[in-house]
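cron nightly-structures :: item 1 of 1
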Amino acid sequence: MLTKYIPCDVPKDKEGEFLSNLQKSTNGSGRLMLFAGDQKVEHLNNDFYGEGIPLEDNDPSHMFEIASRAKIGVFATQLGLISRYGKDYKNIPYLVKINSKTNLLPYDAKDPYSEQWFGVKDIVRFKEISGLDIRGVGYTVYLGGEHEHSMLKEAARVVREAHEEGMLAVLWIYPKGRFVKDEHDPHLIAGAAGVGACLGADFVKLKVPYENGKFIPDLLREATGAAGKTGVLCEGGSKIEAESFLKELYEQIHIGGSRGNGTGRNIHQRPLEEAIRMANAIYAVTCENASLSEALRIWRG
């Protein structure tokens, strides 16, 4: 029952809207397939141009084409990009990322701070003006640095204000900074999951836990347990072979207990038709309870 995921800070007159956003975004499964398109700020053009990346990926419209033609839960990107392309892609379900930073300043030089660009009220007003299907907002928190208190305060307010408007709230929570020795430490990632729950997020996007540089599905259970009713989304990471990605995703959900994924490069760093098939395969595993073999058939066309 999706109603068990309705937080108490959603007003009674907004519960229907919140439940509708959750229902549509998860296909009634409670699992979210988040197509991540926020990297043009986060990674500049490194993810969109270069060896092994199709030239069409350099144009932002490539991501919008994928999001408009593939099965997805939400397409997460910045408000300005949605503003530039939204009139041409009104059928996309959007989640607005309201803070972002570039990766030019190394983390060992200064602890990261990703300041909020817009308030939730700005997003609500944009939704009214544009008529677009905006279902939620997203915000990144970097734990472990000197600025975490500011980001935690902003994130708490973002979640509360999103719920008051009947929208979903998704937090990216990544331990980073000079005092973080291993971003993929399973115990540390579980701590980040617990912070997401304490902030009231509906979903929290986390690093994938590793042991000796490898993903072991059982390692994820500590994080999904610590998150409680907050759904854990594993980041997609750098592009890998589609078969390996889909196998890991299936294990994250069915062994590790995650409730979705946040995938960017493993989708958009492919030619359009391939990207659509990959997105559909990820959606099938995440939101349609497809088996791994069924997802691989979708990917292979």
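cron nightly-structures :: done
The longest strand covers residues 133-143.
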